[in-house]
Design brief:
About 10% of the residues lie in helices and about 35% in strands. The protein has one helix at about 15-25; strands spanning about 1-5, 5, 15, 30-35, 35-40, 50, 55-60. The protein starts with a strand and ends in an 8-residue tail after the last strand.
């Protein structure tokens, strides 16, 4: 599996939620794409990942211009 363009080998099947927890990403502020398709937040707990998957994880950050 590739996660944000870095190779990662799975010893067992895991879910998107397990991957996010393993990598230390905040669940509510993260978007996940698997093989080019966005995974809805509601499916993180059940969406299974496999060694051949390409995963992109994007973390949202707050901020902006101050006056």
């Amino acid at each position: 599996m590739r996660v944000n363009n870095e190779k990662m080998t799975l010893n067992r099947a895991i879910t998107v939620l397990e991957l996010l927890l393993l990598k230390g990403y905040p669940i509510r502020q993260t978007a996940v794409e698997v093989n080019g398709a966005i995974v809805p937040n509601a499916k993180y707990r059940t969406y299974g990942l496999h060694n051949e998957d390409n995963v992109e994880i994007v973390r949202f950050a707050g901020g902006g211009l101050s006056n």
